[in-house]
């Protein structure tokens, strides 16, 4: 019995080690048998979806790529196929047809990252994923171009016979009216960050996505599980000597699992007991009645750092940051020698405190 137990434990250890080694392998992309190399940002995973730099994969598949900085939209054309993707949007377009994507295109380190399988199959390629080797094998099809007009086959028009149509009685039944979901000001939406953000290498304009945290419930105040909040980095400042790094996040919109988007107005808030309280309805509400105009992470204190606020309409700039950081570093709980950059990993929890009420259609499943 002891020998068998020892063998079983050994097998479990080996299996765990193999699984760990597999998760640490870099993602490889192979197109038509040739490995694809990326100069800067490498492929990554988000929500179990492989994301790749758009130019590398589009151009390798023979697509012409165009980037519109004004609308942050990518357009790729290959033969008759045209695909359009917007940064941070769950809605895309394939050959003029609106489609929904599981993971939106995002900006990482200055590179636009797009979902590999969606983009490849939208352009007519086939994709096979090898989970053990962490490898995506893509086979591109021949370019499908329209035939010249003189080469198109002649098709006889159908013969239309006019007959009296049957009488049909149409009864219009009004759909039931469902009241919208209304979430009041100062209510806090709990979120979990999907990707990594840092005051060291994040840049203003970088898009981030955070998912609604529903715990054991399928909804939070009527919001369904899987709802996501999209935002961007509005200010990033690296650690300088004893001054901690600073990272400010701006929230832009909430997107339901069905892809319906709603603009949001609010600021960052912590989810600790000093910041929020849970009321009878189950909602989290901000404890303080004061609404800060600028709220940011500072790389000081324990955990993910301090969440600091400015009651000022001015943006957080170097001219205004001195007094803000001076107040933080003057705290008894902050040691100047322990200041650092803000480093938010995937899975970091924080809240969105609404500054305006949010009205959402009831049918958002």
3D architecture notes:
The chain folds into two domains: 26-139, Copper Amine Oxidase, Chain A, domain 1 (2-Layer Sandwich), CATH 3.30.457; 181-360, Lipocalin, CATH 2.40.128. The protein has four helices and 30 strands. The chain has helices at 2-23, 54-60, 116-122, 318-329; strands at 28-31, 34-36, 44-46, 49-53, 64-68, 73-78, 81-86, 91-94, 97-100, 106-108, 111-115, 126-130, 135-139, 181-183, 187-193, 197-198, 207-212, 219-220, 223-224, 228-237, 246-255, 261-263, 266-269, 276-278, 284-286, 294-298, 306-310, 343-344, 349-354, 358-360. The strands form seven sheets. Strands 15, 17, 20, 21, 22, 23, 24, 25, 26, 27 and 29 form an eleven-stranded antiparallel sheet that branches. Strands 5-6-7-8-9 form a five-stranded antiparallel sheet, with helices on one face. Mean pLDDT is 76; it is low at 1-21 and 145-151.
SSE layout and pairings?
Elements: H1 2-23, E1 28-31, E2 34-36, E3 44-46, E4 49-53, H2 54-60, E5 64-68, E6 73-78, E7 81-86, E8 91-94, E9 97-100, E10 106-108, E11 111-115, H3 116-122, E12 126-130, E13 135-139, E14 181-183, E15 187-193, E16 197-198, E17 207-212, E18 219-220, E19 223-224, E20 228-237, E21 246-255, E22 261-263, E23 266-269, E24 276-278, E25 284-286, E26 294-298, E27 306-310, H4 318-329, E28 343-344, E29 349-354, E30 358-360
Parallel strand pairs: 1-13
Antiparallel strand pairs: 1-2, 3-4, 4-11, 5-6, 6-7, 7-8, 8-9, 10-11, 12-13, 14-30, 15-17, 15-25, 15-29, 16-28, 17-20, 18-19, 20-21, 21-22, 21-26, 23-29, 24-25, 26-27
């Amino acid at each position: 019995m002891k020998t068998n137990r020892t063998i079983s434990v050994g097998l479990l250890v080996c299996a765990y080690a193999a699984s760990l080694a597999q998760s640490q392998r870099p993602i490889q992309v192979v197109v038509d048998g040739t490995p694809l190399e990326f100069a800067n940002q490498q492929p990554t995973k988000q929500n179990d979806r492989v994301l790749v730099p758009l130019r590398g994969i589009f151009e390798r598949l023979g697509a012409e790529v165009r980037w519109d900085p004004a609308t942050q939209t990518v357009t790729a054309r290959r033969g008759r196929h045209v695909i359009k993707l917007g940064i941070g949007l769950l809605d895309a377009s394939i050959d003029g047809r609106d489609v929904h994507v599981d993971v939106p295109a995002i900006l990482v380190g200055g590179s636009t990252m797009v979902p590999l399988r969606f983009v490849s199959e939208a352009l007519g390629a086939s994709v096979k994923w090898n989970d053990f080797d962490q490898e995506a094998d893509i086979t591109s099809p021949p370019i499908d171009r329209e035939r010249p007009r003189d080469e198109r086959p002649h098709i006889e028009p159908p013969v239309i016979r006019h007959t009296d149509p049957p009488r049909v009685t149409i009864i219009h039944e009004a759909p039931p009216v469902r009241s919208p979901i209304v979430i009041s000001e100062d209510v806090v939406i709990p979120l979990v960050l999907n990707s990594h953000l840092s005051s060291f290498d994040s840049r203003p304009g970088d898009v981030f996505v955070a998912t609604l945290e529903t715990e054991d419930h399928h909804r939070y105040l009527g919001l369904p599980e899987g709802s996501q909040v999209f935002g961007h980095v509005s200010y990033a400042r690296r650690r300088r000597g004893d001054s901690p790094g600073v990272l400010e996040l701006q929230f832009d919109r909430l997107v339901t699992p069905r892809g319906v988007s709603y603009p949001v107005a609010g600021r960052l808030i912590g989810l600790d007991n000093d910041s929020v309280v849970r009321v009878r309805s189950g909602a989290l509400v901000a404890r303080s009645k004061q609404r800060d105009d600028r709220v940011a992470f500072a790389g000081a204190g324990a955990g993910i750092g301090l969440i600091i606020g400015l009651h000022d309409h001015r943006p957080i700039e170097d001219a205004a940051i001195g007094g803000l950081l001076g107040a933080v570093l003057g705290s008894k709980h902050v040691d100047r020698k322990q200041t650092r950059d803000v480093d938010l990993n995937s899975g970091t929890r924080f809240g969105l405190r609404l500054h305006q009420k949010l009205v959402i259609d009831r049918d958002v499943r």
